[in-house]
Amino acid sequence: MRAAATVGLIVLAGCVACGADQGQKPASAVEVKPAAIKPVSAANAKAVKANELGQIPVLMYHRIIENPTTQDDRTPKQFRTELDRLAKEGYVPITAAEYVTGKIDIPAGKHPVVLTFDDSSPSQVTLDGTGTPAKDTAVAILLEAGAKHPGFRPVATFYVTRDMFGKSSPAEQAQIVAWLKQHGMELGNHTKDHTNLMGKPKQVVLDEVTAGHKLITDLNGGEVVTFALPYGNQPKTKEWALKGSDKGVKYNYSGVFLAGYMPAQSPFSGAFDPLGIPRIRSMDKKGDCAKFCSTGWLDWLQSNPGERYTSDGDARTVAFPKFQETMLAPSAKTKALAY
Predict the structure, then answer these.
(1) What is the mean pLDDT of the chain?
(2) pLDDT tens across 258-315, in order?
(3) Cα–Cα distances in Å, from 339 out to 40, 86, 163, 240, 312?
(4) How far apart are CA 285 and CA 270, in angstroms?
(5) Using an 8 Å Cβ cutoff, are 184 and 156 in contact?
(6) How far is residue 122's CA from residue 103's CA, in Å, rounded to a whole number?
(7) What pLDDT does 261 receive?
(8) Distance, C-alpha 250 to centroid of its chain
(9) Could you tell me what percent of the chain has a pLDDT over 90?
(10) Which side of the chain, N or C, has fewer Cβ within a 10 Å radius?
(11) Positive or negative torsion for Cα 105, 222, 178, 97
(12) 1 DSSP β-pair partners
């Protein structure tokens, strides 16, 4: 993340009024134009071990509750612990939309992480009468982490369904949606009814995706850029989840997310597939999660730093060790900075 350019200013000295009556600029006025920001150099990219072709963890959460009843639930303490770990290990949250569109603007040496929440549970977002998040909700804990760890952006992506955080009236739903937008959060489509799209006819898929899309746009939820498949199941034709139209509603997403089970590819990598982006379930190293959930994968990325995405600090370039040049997506070649 580069420092902002110096703002232009006019320095007035001497006889300001000279020539002013004729509408002329005072002879002694000096206009200083903004200085251009130099792109990061290959030497600087190498110094921070930048690798913008590395892998990015996209973490998947559901309910944040004190007494979990399913393997997808996390306690407030567990969520706090994971956010603390992410911050201490140099991760900076970005939204799913920023990830899939390659707008990854984070400081040099830092690593992006995408925090996603499915099913729009009240445990994720509940506000009191003053618009303050309820204690131990996901957004309250996320804001706490941002305050506790400077530079740790408290942003996330919420994949919503008709439940809409437990609010039934459109006015209450719109209130929460507005709060999320004001705080830099993203809303993504998860279908209106959380329908399993596997094996469904095309018309059913279109009905479900457009209904979920309309749910967000009707509440002024902003541009819908990403879609998360219910249960992680893809339709018979994967493209149906990415773009389509029905009953006057049109969608054209930049990324479709699965439900597991590994880190995702860099959007600048030739291996990036917008039709099926993997996520990682948040869970400790036990049972089926000994390797393939968040604690296991974060341990692996920490032990294999050359495999994870590390920023060069300049969103205009894509920096990476030269030997990885063959992994670069053709669309990113104009931004390439190999060292």
Answers:
(1) 91
(2) 998 899 999 999 999 999 999 999 999 998 899 999 999 999 999 999 999 999 999 9
(3) 12, 27, 49, 40, 11
(4) 31
(5) no
(6) 30
(7) 86
(8) 23
(9) 87
(10) N
(11) negative
(12) none
What is the rounded distance in angstroms from the CA atom of residue 135 to the CA atom of residue 122? 12
Rounded to the nearest 5°, which phi and psi values hold at 137?
-75, 160
Per DSSP, the residues of 285-314 read: SSTTHHHHSHHHHHHHHHH-GGGB-B--S-
The residue to which tokens 């003053």 are assigned: 130
Q: Tell me which long-range contacts 282-285 makes (C-beta under 8 A, separation of at least 24).
A: 282/59, 282/60, 282/61, 282/74, 282/78, 282/79, 282/82, 283/71, 283/74, 284/78
Q: In 3D, which of 116, 88, 144 has the Cα closest to residue 264? A: 116
Is residue 217 classed as helix, strand or coil in its secondary structure? Answer: helix
Q: Which residues make Cβ contacts (< 8 Å) with residue 176, sequence separation at least 6?
A: 125, 127, 164, 165, 167
The 8-class DSSP code of residue 220 comes to: T
- Residue 308: what are its φ and ψ, rounded to 5°? -100, 160
Cβ atoms within 10 A of the Cβ of 182, count?
A: 9
Model-wide pTM > 0.85: yes
Q: Write down how long the chain is.
A: 339
